[in-house]
Task: structure prediction
Amino acid sequence: MRNCNSIIVNINFAQIKVALLRLMLIWIVSFYSYQAIAQPDLKVITEDWAPYNYEENGELRGFSIEIVQAIMDELGEEYPISIYPGVRGDRMLETLPNVMYFSLFRTPEREAKFKWIGPISQEAIYFYKRKDNTKIYRTIDDVKKANNITVPYKGLVANKVDELGITNVIKLSARDRQFSLLFSNRAELAVNISPLGVVYYLKQIDKAADALVPTQVKLLEFPLYIACSKEIPDSVIQRWQAALDKVKASDKYEQIYSKYLM
Result:
């Protein structure tokens, strides 16, 4: 009888083990199936907009690039980041599923079209003058009296300048050229990018970081965000947002910002 009981016990244990293994396999398959649904194959894209996102010597660089990479490190996930022309990136974001596009201004016109993660940073765009220019500019009316203002050829800044009725402008596509005109006295002011961008482009034309100084006149203030296709599940957006919040609360965020400001 003891042997029979032993055999029965062994059989029961064997059956239990098989049942547990089956349950474990079912759980694993279910878990990864859920993960596949909850974690879509994201396409992370940006445009060439130094110093936030750009390519140099075949490597991706920029403040926003490093912040997005820090988010992925926090999540333990990795997606390639691709750079596209701005117009193509806009079209991809509007027509394709599972696209994350940074660094975008979160404007009222864009608000309802996408889901948002951010802000990556809170940036403002001022009118800049040469350091040796002693004139004081307090209002848009003061700006309108300036002897030429360099502005981007198109885009959000150019549109805002037009909207405000500022006509004493020279529109140029190259940002370094927009600054160069100030130093050759062909323009009095420039408006095109945030403080990080000003430092970057001054370096490109071999000028000191303080060769240009901001006036008191702010043209725009919009936070920079990651804009996301509406098809991306809210759970994914929330996870990325939580990871960004952790990065911003850490020393790493200030280290990255200071790196590009200097």
User: Anything to note?
Assistant: DSSP finds nine helices and ten strands in the chain. The beta strands are 43-46, 54-56, 59-61, 81-83, 99-105, 115-130, 149-152, 169-172, 189-190, 212-228. Confidence is low (pLDDT under 50) at residues 29-37.
